[in-house]
Records
---
Amino acid sequence: MEQKLRIGVVGLGMGSIHLKGYQSNPHAEVAAICDVNEERLRACAQEFNIEQTFTDANEMFRKAGLDAVSIATPNKFHAPLTITALKAGLHVLCEKPMAMNTKEAERMNEAAKKARKNLMINFSFRFSEMSFALKQQVDAGVIGDIYYGRTVWHRRRGIPGFGGWFTNKELAGGGPLIDLGVHRLDLALWLMGYPEPVVVSGSAYNVIAKEKAAQDDKAYTVEDLACGLIKFKNGATLILEASWMLNIDEDEKMITMLCGTKGGLVQKNIGGGYDFVGEVYTEEGGHLFTKRLDRSMVPVPSPYQEFVDSILEKRQPLATGEQGIKVMKILDGIYKSAELGREVRYRQ
Ligand SMILES: NC(=O)c1ccc[n+]([C@@H]2O[C@H](COP(=O)([O-])OP(=O)(O)OC[C@H]3O[C@@H](n4cnc5c(N)ncnc54)[C@H](O)[C@@H]3O)[C@@H](O)[C@H]2O)c1
């Protein structure tokens, strides 16, 4: 019988989605799970029929006989757990944001190179029909050279775990920018070919959440809105915006708009939900065309399938540590620029 990859999962909130992804893959099995919350650990083991359970991730890395692991804990633990897992000889799929900051992300990537193991970042919004369909249009040259874009995720009111780790800077590293903005930034950068940032100007606010936190007596030490303007070495400019609480028209608004020399594209959510439409705008023979995209022309793997395939095929995964570092650099730059009140230039 063909051997299956033995995979462990650390952190069983979002981690349970990873778990389901692996369990539905004929080339993988979930051999062990880990959570510091024993009740969650027990419930998950029972629901998914998993024998080996651990409350200490490092012990699981050493003892469970694994090939690979998913890290889906609060952000603060991404770097230390990823590095220990890589040192233990395991491939790692780490949740977004890759880390708390660029320095940590660079250390993770170094550890992967040293261990000669795969490190993939779960930029899950790339792995959809609509994202792949748009990427095909870009790769086919329909958009031309992208020189301007805007990528946005706003919620009118939508703080995850208000008062918990998501809203604690020490555990999360930041607020909606690092939580939601990270997805829209990755999608835009991926479609743009991951250009090199040279300068960033950002602003961050804590206005509506601050008032709500005081009213409800909750801890809230991150921004509720951040935005930034990023200029790249190839001359392109991108605007990024993310918020958990903003006075806008929709409950949840996601849009990525990219404009190129030959055409433009938009991916946006429908009716405040998690379904997306994609459109491409071109001009031919003096006529303007709007094309609505149906679906990708190639099969779209889930991130969990892509992680497994990349290991079995001995190749880099689609969402790499290098890309994760570039994302962290931009997020760090926006936070730093907001703090300093001036633009931040990257050393080239
Ligand atoms: N890719 C996506 O679309 C997506 C969606 C949701 C969350 N996430 C990411 O997943 C991560 C987890 O988010 P969540 O919503 O599942 O949070 P959560 O709080 O629901 O779950 C985190 C779990 O990790 C456990 N945990 C904490 N420290 C641990 C440790 N040291 N070892 C083992 N377990 C530990 C907690 O007990 C908890 O059960 C975050 O980085 C978040 O940004 C990604």
---
Amino acid sequence: MRSRLEHERDRLHAQLREFQAAEGTFDGGFADSSQVTAERGEIEALAGSLSESLRDVEDAVAKVDAGTYGTCETCGGAIGEARLEAMPSARKCITCASTRR
Ligand SMILES: [Zn+2]
């Protein structure tokens, strides 16, 4: 499971770097084009959700090290193998995740 998470982490890192590189290309000269502004906003939104996923995966790797991986952050119960299979960086069990508070 750890190697799967590390693989996922590397993938997200690489994607995020690509987005940051793309963002950088907008910095020169085209600042007043509304088309560029719209594209840039889209890239920033994507980069934002990517870095969020990356944080989740990094936390999951840390939890593997700490021996708490697969434990719900809210109720402390087991997250369940099927859920972890579908979403390796899940922080909560299906019960807590579907309960909005
Ligand atoms: Zn829970």
